């Protein structure tokens, strides 16, 4: 089994290494039973959004971690890892949905420095 804290950080690091923009980890554990963390990231194009998803999925599956549910459009992707929900948006969709504002009471977790 995995530790949700370290897995959320690992996901954020993978997305950051792949040049995702504005990678944010929100601790929503005290606000919702939905999940413990949201990891939110942006891509500059539909192609990059898809590449971020593919890279993250492949790296997680190599470690035996598979998403439980997937919602996928051309400009946004939501991956449910149980305790962690990953949102990958085209920057325009991210601005439209503005999850950071909707979950403003969540604690933002600092990304690790490599």
Topology:
Layout: H1 4-17, E1 21-27, E2 37-43, H2 46-62, E3 69-72, E4 76-80, E5 84-90, H3 91-97, H4 99-102, E6 107-109
Parallel strand pairs: 2-5
Antiparallel strand pairs: 1-2, 1-6, 3-4, 4-5
Gist?
The chain has 114 residues and is of the alpha+beta class. The protein has 4 helices and 6 strands.
Commentary on this structure:
This protein has a six-stranded mixed sheet. The two termini are 25 Å apart. The chain has helices spanning 4-17, 46-62, 91-97, 99-102, and strands spanning 21-27, 37-43, 69-72, 76-80, 84-90, 107-109. The chain is 37% helix and 29% strand. It is of the alpha+beta class. The model has no long low-confidence stretch (mean pLDDT 92).
Write down the CATH class: Alpha Beta
Largest sheet: 6 strands, mixed
Strand arrangement in the largest pleated sheet = 3-4-5-2-1-6
If you average the pLDDT, what whole number results? 92
């Amino acid at each position: 089994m995995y530790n949700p804290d370290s897995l959320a950080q690992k996901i954020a690091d993978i997305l950051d290494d792949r040049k995702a923009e504005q990678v944010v980890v929100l601790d929503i554990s005290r606000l919702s039973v939905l999940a413990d963390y949201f990891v939110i990231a942006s891509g500059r194009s539909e192609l990059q959004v898809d590449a971020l998803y593919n890279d993250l999925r492949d790296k997680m599956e190599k470690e035996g971690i598979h998403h439980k549910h997937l919602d996928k459009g051309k400009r946004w992707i939501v991956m449910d890892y149980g305790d962690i929900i990953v949102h990958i948006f085209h920057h325009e969709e991210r601005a439209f949905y503005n999850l950071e504002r909707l979950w403003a009471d969540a604690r933002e977790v600092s990304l690790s420095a490599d």
